[in-house]
Amino acid sequence: MTPILSKSDAADLVVAARIRRGLTWAQLAEEIGAPVVWTTAALLGQHPMSKHQAELAAKLLGLDETVAESLQLQPSRGTDPARMADPTIYRLTEALSVYGPALKELIHEEFGDGIMSAINFNVDVARRPHPDGDRVVITLDGKFLDYRW
């Protein structure tokens, strides 16, 4: 019996197939019927896909059932420390380092003692034209979870 393909190996195959087939993440998400950020994260190994979604993604990408099998697995979520040095990821971390304490204070002032869920959560990325250069707009939309004692 062969081992199940790791989620990182499956992600590498997904990325290569997407590029070689000239597909965008948005096109894949539309075909799968799921939000683009979630779909991208799932295909990169951060979420489990349903059997139907995984089989459809593999078919769209011309990949076999070993990839579809891997896409259905529960992930070990998080980021490889080496990826944290990527400039885009590093700048997002920097933004949260600078503004995280202020956001925490504002959340507590508005909602009370609690946190924003990253499980009951949506995220979106958009482009907004601006005279000084287009802006990246990232929306984090998480359910407020109050601490209950």
TrEMBL record:
InterPro entries: Cyanase (IPR008076), Cyanate_lyase_C (IPR003712), Cyanate_lyase_C_sf (IPR036581), CYNS_N (IPR048564), Lambda_DNA-bd_dom_sf (IPR010982). Its EC number is 4.2.1.104. SMART domains: Cyanate_lyase (SM01116). One of its GO terms (molecular function) is cyanate hydratase activity. It catalyses: cyanate + hydrogencarbonate + 3 H(+) = NH4(+) + 2 CO2. The active site is at R91, E94, S117. Keywords: Lyase. It holds the Pfam family Cyanate_lyase. It comes from the Bacteria. Residues 78-149 form the Cyanate lyase C-terminal domain. Belongs to the cyanase family. PANTHER family: CYANATE HYDRATASE. Catalyzes the reaction of cyanate with bicarbonate to produce ammonia and carbon dioxide. HAMAP family: Cyanate_hydrat (MF_00535). NCBIfam families: cynS, PRK02866.1. This is Cyanate hydratase. It comes from Modestobacter roseus. The gene is cynS.
